[in-house]
Amino acid sequence: MAEHQDGLTAEQLINCGHGLTYNDFLILPGYTDFTTSEVVLSSSLTKKLTLKSPLVSAPMDTVTESAMATAMALTGGVGIIHCNCDIDFQADEVRKVKKYEQGFIIDPVCLGPNNTVKDIWDVKKRYGFSGVPITDSGKMGGRLKGIITSRDIDFVDENDANHLLSELMTPIEKLTVAKYGCNLQEANDLMQQSKKGKLPIVNGNGELIALIARTDLKKNRDFPLANKDSRKQLIVGAAVSTRNEDRKRVDALQKAGVDALVIDSSQGNSVYQIELIKYIKEKYPDLQVIGGNVVTSQQAKNLVEAGADGLRVGMGSGSICITQEVLAVGRPQGTAVYRVAEYASKHDVPVIADGGISNPGHILRALSLGASTAMMGSLLAGTNEAPGEYFFADGIRLKKYRGMGSLAAMEKAGGKARYNVENDQNVHVAEGVSGSVADKGSVFQFVPYLIKGLQRGLQNMGAKDLVKLRLLCTLHAMKLP
Known about the structure:
Elements: H1 10-14, E1 26-27, E2 43-44, E3 50-51, E4 55-57, H2 66-74, E5 78-81, H3 87-100, H4 117-127, E6 132-135, E7 144-148, H5 150-153, E8 170-171, E9 178-179, H6 184-194, E10 198-202, E11 208-213, H7 214-222, E12 237-240, H8 247-256, E13 260-263, H9 271-283, E14 288-294, H10 297-306, E15 310-313, H11 323-327, H12 333-344, E16 351-354, H13 360-368, E17 373-376, H14 378-381, E18 390-393, E19 396-402, H15 413-418, E20 434-438, H16 443-461, H17 466-472, E21 478-479
Parallel strand pairs: 4-5, 4-17, 5-12, 9-10, 12-13, 13-14, 14-15, 15-16, 16-17
Antiparallel strand pairs: 1-21, 2-3, 6-7, 7-8, 10-11, 18-19, 19-20
């Protein structure tokens, strides 16, 4: 068969003598005997977290907050909420994602009969919903008294903000409730029969045990690729810096329910990051920690030995990152991904390719070189779910997008921390720029486009899943253009 193998292996490609970017090579077509719908894109984010598609939104303040993280999790990927903000804001963003969609909601927001309309308005502002159980204690586990919904307060005047919820709620006598011990299907059937929006689950003493929402049932049907934890909550990640004061941030994010922490540093091979990884893994051993950024196997080795559950690869390769030009430090992204993944795979540590991704083809190239997932910044920055408002320039609808090493981003503590800028430092060297990106519509349309592009590419390569793709790329499937 050797005479028919006219391509290169991934190792031969990387050893050709030049640092490679994603635009420097192609993957040869293979034999196809399956449809695109049969292609499976599931891949590991960390040692213990698996995604249904290998897509991750970057922890940038113009890319990922709760709206983006929610949309990414629903469509098969995951969002990493940025840390260029205060601790309470970031923890609240994580809570919004974790509360968004569930089967049995086992820790619903509750209020008491003596709470007021102002309290329910505050709940809606903080969490985005206003359907709240009322218990005698105002907490989960108290005796259920009723439910307050948006219909109960829609026409309440601002002057009546101190109106007691006990006077507006739907009392328990008019509610449909399910008994503790029922399964999800039984609860769903009861909701269908009652045509109610919320179904409380109570025990023999009338105490609230859980809650089910009709909107969640509809979302489950609409998003079969949604990534959820064991409690049926959406998976979400969040970034932290290596500064000592961010250890409080770690505590707040863990309490909020974050699934993975990404240590956000442009140069991950530092004593500060190694100490932080060890600190987190000792205090919260089940919390997944992603280290980085790294571009060499030696950098990767130090973080893996410290306990990292995943690695983020890339330095100066993003569209708005200028580290390589300004500081002469970095590595071509294709070579960086291959070298780090080559080492990390021996320790079962997944790799995230971060930077240089501007289309589905780049994602496929990153995956072929050993990455488990691809992190996207500019590719998602123009979507509806990205933070910021649209504006028009020359008739084109745009959103602002900036690197976390830009002078604008470094005006806040998170941007400074990522690039190891001291708070009292007067002169800042920019490692990123600010710009704008064109409107891409909603993530709910854009991510399915990316997924279909990945499936079509894998079909043409003859790979039914990402494991087969990596195998092919060790067997003369790659080619310099």
